[in-house]
Amino acid sequence: MEQQANSSLRLVMTGIALAVSVALTGTTLAQGAGIGQGQNVSQEGTSRAGARNQEEAAAAEAASTSIDAQTGKILNEAIVFLNAEDYAGAQTKLSSLNLEKLSPYERGTVERILFSIKYAQEKYDEARGHLQKAIDSGGLNTQQIDEARYQSAQLYMQEEKWREGAAALEEWFKTAANPNSAAYYLLAVAYYQQEDFNRALAPAKKAVELMDQAKPNESWLSMLSALYLQREEYKEAIPVLQQLIAAAPDKKTYWMQLSSVYGQMEDYANALGIMQLANNVGLVTEDSEVRRLADLLLFNDVPYRGAQVLESAIEKKIVNLDDKLYEKLANCWIAAGEYDKSVAPLQRAAEMAANGDTFIRLGEVQVQREDWPAAIAAIQRGVDKGQLRDPGNAQLMLGIAHYSQKNYDQARPFFERARQSDRHRQIAESYLQAIRAQG
Prior knowledge:
Elements: H1 2-29, H2 48-64, H3 69-83, H4 87-95, H5 104-120, H6 124-136, H7 142-158, H8 162-173, H9 181-193, H10 197-210, H11 218-230, H12 234-247, H13 252-264, H14 268-280, H15 287-299, H16 303-316, H17 323-335, H18 339-352, H19 357-368, H20 372-385, H21 391-404, H22 408-418, H23 425-437
């Protein structure tokens, strides 16, 4: 999230620096133009006095924004150097001007060019100083002052001075006319970087509200989604993540997040649905993702498909072959009633496991298959491997396997040991009673 936010800041700031350069080029090329064309002193329906007043107002405005021919030539040459990335050349040209002899508008123009030079050199503190001098020059109009203040706030962001950037933006918002989506996004970033998620939420929502809905901005949406997730507001995050998937369907992060959000809300059907869609478009490619998909399939009573997903992942070599994976595969086959298919992965899991419990599980499957010798062999290996969670169960299962083959004398000592466990005493004693009844 932080990397994406910083990338967006660089794009916005670069665009502003270029815009300033282009705007200044147009201004200086028009230097000395005076009153514009099309001024008519005898427009129909306008009195001579009214026309004269309009002329005087236009003349005053033109005079206040006019640039001396020699000054304009130097400014144009400086801008040519600036656009050619010859910053030293641009600086030298501007230094030939005596700022004290320039008009307020000319001084403001010089400071704005200096801002572009310092910004391009990544000297942000100096760049911000030139913006303030441009404002103080008295030569900028209201719109230009507004732009300069906004740029100054953005420079704080560029320097990762989040607190100062947020304060400057908040101050700018007080007088800004129709702030756009990007401005609200930057304010959200400033608060987010300070981990002030509560204050970041409102501008993040406003940024998404104001963005072009036909071309949704991924950074804007990602910020809002991150804030909702941070605040554990999962219901609100869902439509935002859906928009992110629509905007960037090839980014698996959004698919995984949406599935996880549904999981947090215990909506496991939708959690599975999103994962399956992601898998269908080839986005489930990592070990943890494959295992989660298998878990969701198993939980949603689709174990056969879960086993297929795991076997496919094993074949494609995109999962780590550990005991947990093989046990998960076996559990899927067992839940699907495919006991024969569960034997091989359960055998592998048991051999890789640190204790004997998985061998006991394998023995239980062999009991279900009524393969008594195999059940005895697996359970005995589990006992030999040790560290069992329930040793009494292993003794009970060994007794049942022998008893089922009518090997009553061999079964008796296992039931005797199993009856020592409170958990298995009742069943073990019932088997011992049955053995005594055999006489």
